[in-house]
Structures
1.
Amino acid sequence: MKKLNLAIVGYGGMGSYHGNNYLRENAKFEISGIFDIDASRYAAARENGIENYDRFHSKEEIAADASTDAVLIATPNDSHLEYVTFFAQAGKHIICEKPVALSSAEYAQMLEVCDKNKVVLMVHQNRRWDPDFLTVKKMYDKNALGKFCRIESRVQGANGIPGDWRKFEEKGGGMMLDWGVHLIDQMVYMLPELPESVYCRYFYGAGFEVDDGFRLEMNYNGGLSVEIAVDTNCFIPLPRWTVYGADGTAVIEDWALNGGIVKPVYSKDIKIAGIQAGNGFTKTMAYRTAESVVKSELDKVSPEPNAFYNEFYDVVVDHKEPLIRSSEVMNVMKIMEAAKRSAKENQVITIARH
Amino acid sequence: MKKLNLAIVGYGGMGSYHGNNYLRENAKFEISGIFDIDASRYAAARENGIENYDRFHSKEEIAADASTDAVLIATPNDSHLEYVTFFAQAGKHIICEKPVALSSAEYAQMLEVCDKNKVVLMVHQNRRWDPDFLTVKKMYDKNALGKFCRIESRVQGANGIPGDWRKFEEKGGGMMLDWGVHLIDQMVYMLPELPESVYCRYFYGAGFEVDDGFRLEMNYNGGLSVEIAVDTNCFIPLPRWTVYGADGTAVIEDWALNGGIVKPVYSKDIKIAGIQAGNGFTKTMAYRTAESVVKSELDKVSPEPNAFYNEFYDVVVDHKEPLIRSSEVMNVMKIMEAAKRSAKENQVITIARH
C-alpha cells in the first residue's frame, strides 16, 4: 500500500491535534515534517514524537521535497489563500482547515489554482463524521420522525472565545467562521436543497470585534426551518439537537449522545386533561401522559474516527469521488456570507440558486 | 366591603374556568349570571354551582341589570369588539379575554368607547402573575445575572391546536394570538423599551390556515435579543425559560419551577482542558468542571393566585392605577401585527416608536 507523506503547515493547537490524534493512528500516512513561523513549535513537534520534526523551516523546503505528497494547512484563516495557492502550484495535495477561506471569492481562486495544478483540495469539514450529526442524518434519511419540520442545532460553550487570532475580524475570527462553518456544512450535506433565505443575529456580549455567538435561522422550501445556535458564555446548555418531526421529536443532549425519541400515541381512549400552568389553565400545552407517548432509543451511528483521513487518502490515491464536494463548500461560504450580511444589515437575505 | 357583581359572557372552556377557579374563590366578587349563545352551557353553569345560572338569556338582559357591575368577556376573539362596545355603552366595567382584539385598530376603538363611557377595560393578561415569569422578572429587576444578553421564552405543547374556532383565521385563531399574546405581553411589561425590530416565522405543519407554532425574534436597543417559541407538536419540550446573562445563565424548566442558576468562577488556578467532541477537538466548547462554576437555586416568586381579579377589583372600586396599562396592551397588539407581517413577507419589521 502506498503511504501518503504529509507535511503539517501550522503546528498550533489544531495542527498538533491532527498529528497526535489522526495521522499518528493512521497507517496510510507518514508525517514528512512540519512548518511553523513560531520556532518554539518545533520542540512541541519533537515532544509529540514526530520523527522529522526538524526537516522543514520554510514552505519552500516543503514544496521542494519530492517525497511530500500532501500538506495539512492549519494556520490562521486569513493565510489559507496564500498557502493553498503556494502548495497547489507546487503540486501538493491539500487538506485545509475550516473555514477554507474568508470569502467565496477567495475559495473560487483556490479551486481554480487547485484545478489547474490537478491537486486535491479537501476542506477539513470533519464534523460530517460527528456521531451526533450522523444520528440525526440517519433519522432524516430513514424518515424516522416523519417529515422534518424544524431542526435546532446548537453548540453552547462557557469559555468565551479563544484568546488568539480568533478574536480579530481580519484574521477570520468569530464564532460563525469557527463553529458556524461546521454546523452549516452539516445541513448543506444532509439536506437536498439550500435554504431559500437566512436571517442571522450576531452576538457581541464579550465586547470583541467579532461575533462571540449567533443565531442563524435558515428557511427552506416546503416549510422546513433550521436554527443554528452558537454561544460562548452559556453555563446551562440546551440540547445539542432538537429535531421536530411531523410524527415525533428527537433530542440529542450532548456529544455522548444522551437523548431519545418521543412519539405520540393517538387513540380515542386517551383524553387530554387541561392543567394549571402558571396563573392560568391550558389544555393545548398540557404535558402528555405516559400512556399517550412512545419513547424509544436513538439509533446511534458510530463512524470510524479516522474517516476524514481515510477519505482524503481514497480521493488522492484511488481517485474516489470526494464526499466533501467543492460545490457544497462553496455553498457553505455563501450561506456564511449571507448570514454576515443579514446580521450587519438586520435583514432577511435571499440565497441565490445555482 | 362592596362586592362586585360580574356576569360571565361566553361560558365555554375559559369562562367556566374563570368562574370555578377565580371568581368562586374571591370574596370580593359575585357571579350575577352567565350568557352563552350555546343553550347547553346553562346546564354546565348550574352543575358548576352558579346560583343565578338561568338569569340572563341575552346580552341586553345583562346590560339592563342594574345590579351587574361588570362583565367577563370570554367569547371567540372575533366577537370581542362587539361585546366590549356593547357593554361599555351599557356602563359595565369589562374584563376581556386575550387577545383583546384582532388588530390594534379594533383595540383603539375599544379604548375610545370605554373611555367615553368611563368604564374600566382590563385585558386578561393573567400571565403577568405566572410564577415562572415573575421569577425571571425578579432576576432582571435585581440584576441577578448581570446584563441580560438574551432571553428565550418557550411554551411547547404536544396536543396540536384546539379543535374549535381557534383553527380559523377570521375567528382570531392560531398560536400567536393564543400564546404569543401572553409571552409578548410579559416582555412588554418587564422590559423598559419595545423591541426595535422583529423577525417571525409562523409554522403550518398541521396544515391549518392559522399558525400552529412560531418563532419570534425581538431585537432590542443595546444588544438584548428575545426569542419567543411556541409549538403544539413537540414531544420533548425545551425549558420554559433560558436567560443568558453576562454573569451567568438561568433556566426554568417547567411550570413547577424546576431549574437553577449557574455562574462561572474565574481563577488562574482553573484551566480549561480541551475535549474530544464528536469527530473533533474543542477547547472553546469544553464543558466547565464542577469547581469552575457556582450553582444556585432560583429565587422563586409565588404570587397570589387571585391577583388578577384582586387587581380588577382595586382598579374598579378603589381607582387604583392599572398594572396592565392600555398603552402596553396596544404595544403587544402592534408587536403581534409586526410579527404577522414579518411571517407573511419573510422580512424584518421595524417597530415604530411612540
2.
Amino acid sequence: MSDMTSNADAPRSPGRPRSVRADEAIVEAALDLLAEGSTIEALSIEAIAARAGVGKATIYRRWAGKEALLLDALRRLKGVMAQPEGHSVRDDLILLVGAIGRNVDPRASKIMPCLVPEVNRSPDHFRLYQNIIAPRRQLMREVLRRGIDEGLIRADIDLEVTMALLTGPMLIQRVLRWNPELDEQTLPEQVVDTVLAGIQAR
Amino acid sequence: MSDMTSNADAPRSPGRPRSVRADEAIVEAALDLLAEGSTIEALSIEAIAARAGVGKATIYRRWAGKEALLLDALRRLKGVMAQPEGHSVRDDLILLVGAIGRNVDPRASKIMPCLVPEVNRSPDHFRLYQNIIAPRRQLMREVLRRGIDEGLIRADIDLEVTMALLTGPMLIQRVLRWNPELDEQTLPEQVVDTVLAGIQAR
C-alpha cells in the first residue's frame, strides 16, 4: 500500500490519473457504507464495487482483499499523523496528545465506536484496529524514550502504562464526551504536565 | 426509581411478586433489543412491551417514558457500584479504577459502544449517558477530596482532569482493548501510583 491513499490532504484535481480517481471512489464507497451502518463483516467487495461504480477486478488489482482496503480506508479517516518537532519533550507530548481522537472525517464518529464490538469478536478485525493505532503509539513511545535519554524522565517507568495515561483522558473526552466539565483545549497540556510530574527523574 | 432494578445481583425466585417479575422482563426486553442492534431512537415502548409479553400500560405504570426505563436498564448493565472503604485513599482509588468499564452483563460490550454516535447527536441521550456515569465520577471525586483534606494531595489540582487521568487508561483498555501490551490486572495500581506521584503534596 502506498502512502497516497492514506494522505487525506491530497489535492483533488480533474487532471489526476483515472486509477487514482478510482482508488478514491473505492475508499469513499467503503467509508460511506460503514457510516450508513454496515458492519465490517457484512461489507462485501461486491457492495463496495457497486457503490463506487467500478468492477470487482478494479478493487482486486489494487488491494489483496477487504482487510487491506479497510486498513487504507480507516487510516484515511484519521488523516495525517501529527509530527513531533523533536525539540522539547513536553511540547511534543502536548502535540501528540492534542491529536488523539481528532478525526478529520465526520464519518469517523459514526464508524469508529460501532467497530468496537466487531473488533472484540474477531481476531482479524482486532489486528486491523491495532494496525491503525500502532504507528501513533510508536510516535509517542519514541518521544518518551527521548525524555528518558535526556534525563528528564525516570528510566524505570512502564512506557505502555505511561502512554495509556497520556492517551486515555483525551480519547474518552473526544470520543465519549466523558465529562462536560473538562476543557478539551487545555486538557492536553494539563494531562502532560500531571503525568510528567509523576514520572520525572528526581 | 428504586434500587431494585439496578441490582443485577438480586436472586431470581419463583416466589417474587408478579410486578417485580414484570419489571425484570421489561428491562431485559429493552436490553435484548438494544443488544440485537436497535438504536435508542428506533426503540419503542410498543416493541419492548411486545418482547416482554406485557401491555404498554404496565410499562407506563412503572416508568414515565422510554428515557427513564433506559436509565434503569443501562444502569443494570453496569451492576452495583464499587464502594470505597474509606481508610486508604490509594486503596480506594485502586478499587474505583479497577471497577471502570467492568460490566457485569455481556450485552454491554454490544450495546455501549454503539450508543456513542447516538449520544453525540441527541441532548436527551447525552443526559441519559451522563446520568449513568455521574454517580461513579462523584464517588471518585469524594475520595480525591479526602486525599486533599488529609494533606496527601495538593489542594490546587484540577479534580476533573485528575479523574480523567484515573479513568481514561482503564476505560480505553477495557472497552477498546487499546494496547495488547498492557496488563489489566496491574493497570489500576500502576495508574493510581503514577497519578498520585504527579499530584502529591510536597
